[in-house]
Amino acid sequence: MPDATDASLAEQYEAYPYPPRDPRDEAKRLVVGSPSHLREVDFWVFGARRPRSRPLRALVAGGGTGDGAIMLATQMARLGQPGRVTYLDRSAAAMAVAQARAAARGLANIVWQRGSLLDLPESGLGPFDYIDCCGVLHHLPDPAAGLAALLAVLAPGGGMGLMVYAPHGRTGVYMLQDALRLLAPPDRPPAARLDVAKRLMRNLPETAWLRMNRYFSDHLSGGDAGLYDLLLNPRDRAFAIPALHELLAGASLAITCLVEPLRYDPACYLPEPRLRTRAAELDPLARAALAEAVAGNMSTHVVYCTRAGEVAEPADAMAPRSVPVARETAGEDLARSIGADGTLTMLFNEIRVPLALPPLAAPILRLIDGRRSVADIAAAMAERGTDPAAFARAWSETWAKLSAANRILLAPPA
């Protein structure tokens, strides 16, 4: 239930809508990310089995200034996905920014609702096939109650995309939050608290951990809203992987993807063979927790999940009719990025992870356009003299590595 801290939170987002966005920028670029990229939803939630012709009923719960809703609605319009996105947020100021952004894009597939996600069970909204809740659960008085409210309007067979803060990559944040609770108590007006925070940032000693943390930039480039949300938010908790798993399991939710899956493989960070062998002996949850602890650079966790008994079996990437698709970076561009040594380097918050790809990966990637099926690609490769068995081996390896990096996925049936 809402409490006094919740009232301060509501006041914050009216004064400083987050994240700061200018609707005029919609003419320049689309803000793209995770969760709720339509390619990801198609694959990580529905297993690339839900036909594109089937209307998608989506909810963005806690939509802020609109990043998730604008991205998803734009991608649905571009790809001809019928359905609509329902935007929900308590902040009138944030919703006004989101609406102006939608108007700048001419989007007609968004429904606007002002309110709290905690009121969803009695709202009359839904059911929804997909629910986005990005950056919200960690601000609630009871995150489990928030999940329960979302589940109340999730349609059978549906899924969710969630983002929560992670502790290790936010080193330094909670130290300064403690300091600012003393210097600028939450009962002071937002503008007065922000002034104190700016003064503190100008006078931080060199030893302050936040100075050394390069894994986010809200306090540097996010304006007043970014600084306030990072250091003055009245309720902010972080979830390490075991705690996040416990939260989701308590709601009978199963994780279908930690984005990107490769980041959560400790082998990426442990080149020493004995350490890799020991890590490989751990169960999947422990391996993900190990990767988080060793990498130290994860400031958020993005997950896709469904009800535990409703996990969709992903489509078979080796099936002739499957259609591989680049999530965002075109296959041609991925091919050009492969080094002379046959490796494609992934960059995860300053950690470089080289992926050794087979020699046939580059020509295969150049044929991935979201329209050609695996059979089409195999036929094109055969015309160039590639043995079908050699193609199958190369595609299997390429798919395994690039789907784990969230770069190549499968398109849903037309």
From TrEMBL:
Keywords: Methyltransferase, Transferase
GO MF term (any one): methyltransferase activity
Methyltransferase type domain segment(s): 61-158
Residue runs in coiled coils: none
Keyword Transmembrane helix belongs to the record: no
Sequence segments annotated as region (Disordered): 1-26
GO biological process, one term: methylation
SUPFAM superfamilies: S-adenosyl-L-methionine-dependent methyltransferases
Pfam families xrefs: Methyltransf_12 (PF08242)
InterPro entries xrefs: Methyltransf_12, SAM-dependent_MTases_sf
Entry keyword tRNA processing: no
Protein name: Class I SAM-dependent methyltransferase
